[in-house]
User: Fold this.
Amino acid sequence: MEVTILCRHLNNDSYNIVASRGKYGFTLLEIVIALTILAIAIIPILNAYAPAIFSAAEDEKTAVFTNQVRGTISRVMTLDFQTLSSNQGDPVDLVSLFGSAEEAAKETFTFNGKAYTPSVAISDASSAQGGLLELTVTLEQVSLKTLKAQY
Assistant:
């Protein structure tokens, strides 16, 4: 902002224009005050959004793991009853369950730079009478169970 002042000399009737030096930019004090006000306003806003951001990341992880577990349990369900029955255990060796290391490796996936492999458990659910197996697929906090019957 520039201020212009008109001055009248006492000796004559003419006016001279005297321009004061213009002010360019902000002082350090003004910048510090503005940053302080911004910090006071932004910190509560960030604190309000932080739980939502962390919750969204956890929800994404749960959704990805749930979909992977669903895929694995669907793949296990396609195997015949005899194969499942002969591979009972907790956890099951995926190589012997799927028949090869290449097939077992299809269950491993990477999420956020870390490799994950679901765990498969097969147990007798028929009270030792045979004909019913409980299949459980677990991946960290996600675990799905289903039954497979011999018919």
The radius of gyration is 36 Å. The chain has a mean pLDDT of 86.
